[in-house]
Design a protein that fits this description.
Quinone Oxidoreductase, Chain A, domain 1, alpha/beta, 9 helices, globular, 334 residues, 2 domains, 27% strand, single chain
Amino acid sequence: MIGQQIVLAARPEGEPKESDFALVETEVPTPGPGEILVRALYVSVDPYQRGRMSEARSYAKSVALGEVMTSQTVGEVIESDDDRFAPGDVVVGQLGWQEYAVARGSALRRVPPSVPPTLALGVLGATGLTAYFGLFEVGRPVPGDTVVVSGAAGAVGQVVGQLARLAGCRTVGIAGGPDKLADLTGEYGYDVGIDYKADDVNGALKAACPDGVDVYFDNVGGELSDLVLRRLALHARVVVCGQVSQYNNQTPELGPRLLGLLIVHRARIEGFLVTDYAPRFGEAIPRLAAWLAAGKLRYREDVTDGLENAPRAFIGMLRGENRGKALVRVAEPG
């Protein structure tokens, strides 16, 4: 049996191009002892993948040239040599942009039949878990805090704002364009939306946060974050989740050196990886699922059809063209 894969064909220089990827065909592997063969249903498209295309030092090894592009994937078990999984089960794991993958059972998590597969990559998967642990464990909001989120209409940002509201906080979301701005206040319940493409961001932040910013959940970095850091409240917490504005830069972007503001405001800035909290996923997922079932969490998905179109979806996501969680549909269940 032959399956398709998207592999890294070249290291991007600046913004990735579709020619940096290649669609190849390969023999589908046979699972060995303790292994499972999974057929992909959906693959995820996320900003962190841009860093994995680079050879720069990071928290995980780079994708090698000719190697399958890394990603979270939700798929259907075809064959299993692990008693915990049976053909037909839906699972999620780091399986990459490919139609078929073999993995050990310990690397997979079963998706309950009651959960739509896409949610295992979104609000009930790495996206929701990133928002949950980043906000609650790093940001540590308390009722009455003002929480500002950059990239607020994106996959993680849309969840962060809603969780902050559930925690009794006032929420300010920053996104680009009128459609995303409407999503912030209409779909995700942000108290204030700021359009960084059209608004005077500094003035809008001053008006929206008269007492300063208690928690800043940063998905973007760069000049936008410089403006937010100037509005910090006393004992503010800055959660560094992503720096998507910087990922395509070939040389580091020079900017204001604002660490002195951490002294002035006695503030704390901390980066994190959601995988650091893997032992506690079982705590977070039921809470997220309960909020979702109660209608307290809303989400939007941006689905592209066809594995061959994953590079295009990825490039569009980096440009901010998606509204909500970016996914690629590879196959239908069954």
